Amino acid sequence: EQFGINIASIKRGEIIINIPLRSERLFPGDEINVIGTDEQVKLFKIYLDKHEIDEPEAFIKEDIILQQLELKNRVCIGKSIRDSQIREKTHGIIVGIERNGKRILNPESHWILESDDILWIAGDRKKINEFLKG
């Protein structure tokens, strides 16, 4: 939250934790994938470099997707991102919102969702597809 980025995945040895919960801890040797603006990622990297944490190798996990979701007629309208249960239902994170022609990157969890919002969610492919069907 301090840098405005989202951690999309953690690779810990042979274990990959996709869309980690906010309670998940980082340990020495963890490799992370982050989502943010170029500036946010740059500042986060500077922070990591100052704290002598190795730069992670990039890796792609096919089970994680970035998916667009239009909110029309969804039960989460009028709720905050935190209270919308989208994270739990999709095992994903909202990395952006398009609202009234503007793009909001990495919105904070207290943002209230509106009926014409278009959400960008990074998360588990199967759970996002199930959520879209419901």
CATH architecture of the largest domain: 2-Layer Sandwich
CATH topology value of the largest domain: Alpha-Beta Plaits
Per CATH, the class of the largest domain reads: Alpha Beta
Structural class: alpha+beta
Q: What's the Cα radius of gyration?
A: 15 Å
Count of the separate structural domains: 2
Largest sheet properties? 4 strands, antiparallel
Give a verbal description of the structure.
- This protein is of the alpha+beta class and 134 residues long.
- It has two domains: 6-50, no CATH class; 64-133, Regulator of K+ conductance, C-terminal domain (Alpha-Beta Plaits), CATH 3.30.70.1450.
- It contains three helices and seven strands, in the order βββαβαβββα.
- The chain has helices at residues 38-50, 86-90, 125-133, and strands spanning 6-12, 15-18, 31-35, 64-70, 92-99, 102-105, 118-124.
- The strands form two sheets. Strands 4-7-5-6 form a four-stranded antiparallel β-sheet. Strands 2-1-3 form a three-stranded antiparallel β-sheet, with no helix packed on it.
- The radius of gyration is 15 Å and the shape is globular.
- 19% of the residues are buried.
Summarize the topology:
Elements: E1 6-12, E2 15-18, E3 31-35, H1 38-50, E4 64-70, H2 86-90, E5 92-99, E6 102-105, E7 118-124, H3 125-133
Antiparallel strand pairs: 1-2, 1-3, 4-7, 5-6, 5-7
